[in-house]
Design brief:
Elements lengths: L3 H11 L1 H6 L2 E8 L3 E8 L13 H22 L4 E12 L7 E7 L1 H14 L1 E12 L12 E11 L1
Antiparallel strand pairs: 1-2, 2-4, 3-6, 4-5, 5-6
């Protein structure tokens, strides 16, 4: 069982920027039949730009760290703790964000199964993670889709 509170503390210790930005990993699920998903929150206030919207660098950091964290948590759930690095990423910004942010990082079940098998057999595997980033809508706003999208390719090597 993954302890997200402990993971939050670990990431804040090992990646100080995450604490300054206010990262909070909220929900993690991982099952062969359903794939894997990580929900992360980020407050707007410490991540503002000069236009009073979320800073693009903060959005990119949220996406990259969410993808990295999902791969790290998957490897731990498999009892194969790994060194994880991002080796390629692409991101698009679709709309400004004017509220606290959240991201949903996902891996489909077939990709999860392939990754798991290869990591176990070879001690090394690649995994693509898709991340959608949203601004939290209040009761007078309607969410119209992701404000940013990210695809990251990660390499995990068993320690």
């Amino acid at each position: 069982m993954i302890n997200l509170e402990g993971f939050n503390s670990e990431i804040h210790r090992d990646i100080p920027l995450s604490q300054h930005m206010g990262f909070r990993f909220c929900k993690f699920s991982c099952a062969p039949e359903a794939g894997a998903e990580l929900y992360t929150e980020l407050p707007l206030a410490p991540n503002l730009n000069d236009k009073n919207t979320a800073f693009g660098g903060s959005i990119a950091t949220l996406a990259t760290l969410s993808g990295w964290s999902l791969v790290t948590l998957i490897s731990r759930q498999l009892n194969l703790p790994s060194e994880v690095v991002v080796y390629h990423s692409e991101q698009s910004f679709n709309a400004p964000i004017t509220a606290d942010l959240y991201s949903i990082a996902k891996v489909p079940s077939e990709d999860l199964e392939n990754f798991s098998g290869k990591l176990e057999k070879e001690g090394r595997a690649k995994l693509t993670v898709d991340v959608e980033i949203f601004g939290q809508a209040n009761s007078s706003q309607q969410q119209t889709g992701a404000s940013a999208r990210y695809t990251g390719k990660y390499l995990a090597t068993v320690r």
